[in-house]
Amino acid sequence: MVVSVKIMSLTVATLGVISFIFGVVAENKKLASGTPIPSKGIVIYQYPADPTVALGYLSLAFLLASSIAGYFSLFYPYQRKSVPRGAFFKSTSFSIFFNIALFTIGLAITLLVWPTVTEQIHLTRNIHHNLDIACPTAMTSLLGGGAFLSLDSSLFWLVALMLVENAREDYFDEIEENRDSAEALTNSA
User: Where are the bilayer-spanning segments (predicted)?
Assistant: First the structure.
């Protein structure tokens, strides 16, 4: 199977867009509150069917898939020509975009996991002994922010992949120049 930069780019972008869509839909479907049902010394909060938790986890899964594909696409030996990783990190632009991609992944994971797990906890632990608390739900806008950051991280992986292509060309040009210089020296001797 021939893996090309174009296929890897499409894979990273598609997975990132799917993660973004799931995150935005999860934010839009998130419940504002539940219905309190008072009882003897407790309050049970009943929530209608809510796809937020499932959509949040799907968004997280596609973010992770996009990130893994993005990471491995950078160091994959295209056309069976391997390049040492150090050659990529000689480029300041690549190093910057690589680190920004890693940072946005971490932030996106945080913003997707936090409200998703919080919402799951509120849905499963819906019996409270304090009669004065409001019907809890996860914080608003975190899933949407995580969705946008997951899209951003896939875009940063794509920029890093473009910079890797330049670094690969520079590396092979440098090897060719060194080979030509060595041949010229051996022929003149």
Answer: 54-76, 96-117, 137-164
